[in-house]
Amino acid sequence: MADIAAPNSLPATTSPGQAAAAAAAAPQQPEYPTSLLAGLNCIGNTHLIIGCNPLAAARCTQSLAAGAHPILLAPDNGEADQLHYALRSKVDDGSVRWEKKIFEDDDLFKLGREEVGGVVDAVFVTSGCRDPIASHISQLCRRNRIPVNVVDSPSLCTFTLLSTHTDGPLQIGVTTNGRGCKLASRIRREISSALPQNLGDACARLGEIRRRVQEADGAVLQEGDDTEESVGQGAAFNKLVGVKKEEEREELKTRRMRWLAQVCEYWPLKRLASVADSDVETILNTYPTTSTAPSPSPPASPSSSTPLGRIILAGSGPGHPSLLTLATHSAIQTADLILADKLVPAPILDLIPRRTPVQIARKFPGNADAAQEELHVTALAAVREGKTVLRLKQGDPYVYGRGGEEVKYFWENGVRGEDRVVVLPGVTSALSAPLFAEITATQRDVADQVLICTGTGKKGKAPTPPEFVASRTVVFLMALHRITGLIQELTQPLETEDGDNNNNLTRKLWPLDTPCAVIERASCPDQRVIRTTLGRVAEAIETEGSRPPGLLVVGRACEVLRQAEEGKAWVVEEGFRGLDGVLGRVGLEEAKAVCA
Ligand code: SAH
Fold it and tell me: Where is the segment annotated Disordered (predicted)?
């Protein structure tokens, strides 16, 4: 695969959806025109490389790596060192063909593959724009729709090459769109050095699992699964397992595939990079296609000689490690075993000492109960062995975190009293995500109440929608995967099967122009905020894709500090401003010192 950028091929806005959002208004000129990035399948293609300098040698290497056949076009000047040593050896071993002649127009149409009538598939001019032949070749190629690249001459190129990092099947390409290849290369190096080792192998392994699961289950790929576009998850990603029987059977077929998709989404990269053959077997042997995996049974009661350990349920906050409490941080450092929810982000998992075993919940839509049971059983067994077990939960453990259920389970299984079950609060996403999106949930004279709701009830059923109160801010968790239904319930009378529309007669509906915001991955580096209205939010999510976890905030508080932009149906804001500037090295470093 060769990574290329077609310069200025399409005027792109900062986000694809913003174009749609602005469609009604005057067309927006992008601040910086960007390229269409693509991975080209070049296997068997003919690449014509004009010139024989060291750059030509590099182009030949890239071309060969992409499976193409490079032809070097340069007259032989008879000097022994005309070709770089590496290039000479490729010519000698036949992998590069050397046409010893000066360029003639006909070369473009004769040296290529038979299959395409002899036309070459791409041309690389390595001598630069000052060579008068460069602009002639560029023009000729453009006229004949042959992709052409002239070194250091963006205006003569129809495509440019990216600065790439390659590790097995993994390729990462960076372009600054002509602002400087040194800069692009520096950025690429920074990105690649931040990646865990063996990520390429992991991609190969995970790809293999995906292929085998697909083969075994005949799993139908979800929308967006077979492309690698960066629009985030399709709206179906977090779809719950249907409640009806026949739907359930269909859903079972895709169970392992969805588990795999969630592993890729939620496991820390370091963990993904170390995925081993045993993980492959575990995934393949889990969740058979015909029935739900049997639920694990609680471990036998302990022998009275082993003193009980302790279970700590702790909230890890919305994502940024600085938002951990000192108590939770200390629990992370001292626990014997950590059982983490899948939403606990990698920077927090990175704080876990190497010696501490960690298990991440195998929760994915439709499997939450089984995964919860699995964690209960593991935790109980360890507590009975006298261990201190940390159940690390995202946000606050008692805000839709099933924290109460867990406490009850341990009590019922004999782990209770004094400090056997300890619950530590966490910063909940329900209140901190609005803050990070500059939404003042209880702004005086605007909102005198905040309601935290779930968008998804038990077994995937819709909960009763909260009615409109002008001075209310509503935060919906676990709601974005069914945004269309939720908006209908909030803004339209309910269609009831039994004709009971009492609820409809008394329930006040939310106006479609109520401001709202979708906040995803709050406090993480890839935080995203979409500001819009109830009338347009479903369309905005559909267009922008989803980036779980995310929540919806509704009410006039959304527009206190941030007004809507005139003429735009929605606005997308990327990135988290970060706490590091505020905390400096205090924050986490200090927390570590205190806990040490
Ligand atoms: N106990 C958690 C909530 C668990 S329910 C807490 O107090 O935050 C899971 C839901 O929380 C997700 O579906 C999403 O709606 C929300 N959520 C969790 N983390 C989030 C984050 N960083 N940004 C936005 N929403 C988040």
Answer: 287-312
Distance 324 CA to ligand 1 centre (A): 15
Average pLDDT over residues 365-381: 80
Length of the chain: 596
Does the pLDDT at position 50 exceed 80? yes
Instruction: Determine the atom of ligand 1 nearest the C-alpha atom of 527.
Output: 23
Please return the burial class of 308, using the count of CB atoms within 10 Å of its CB with bins 0-12, 13-18 and 19+.
Answer: middle
As given in the structure block, the two tokens for residue 451 are 């309601």
Q: Which of 551, 553, 573, 579 to mutate to test the pocket of ligand 1 (most atoms within 8 A of CB)?
A: 551
3-class DSSP assignment, residue 202: helix
Nearest one of 9, 18, 23, 101 to 544, comparing CA atoms: 18
Of the two residues 549 and 506, the one the predictor is more confident about is 549
The 10s digit of each residue's pLDDT in 230-241 is 444 444 444 444
The pLDDT score that the predictor gives to residue 563 is 84
Query: From the DSSP assignment, how many helices (H) and strands (E) are in the chain?
Result: 21, 21
How much is the pLDDT for 211?
87
Probe ligand 1: pick from 238, 394, 406, 476, max atoms within 8 Å of CB? 394
Tokens 């929308």 label which residue? 223
For residue 199, count CB atoms less than 10 angstroms from its CB and return exposed for 0-12, middle for 13-18, buried for 19 or more: buried
Residue pair 473/450 in contact (Cβ under 8 Å)? The answer is yes
Report the nearest-CA residue for atom 15 of ligand 1.
477
Give 394-406 pLDDT, tens digit per residue. Answer: 999 999 988 999 9
Cβ contact 254:236 at 8 Å: no
How far is the centre of ligand 1, averaged over its atoms, from the C-alpha of 317 (Å)? 9
Q: What is the pLDDT of residue 165?
A: 94
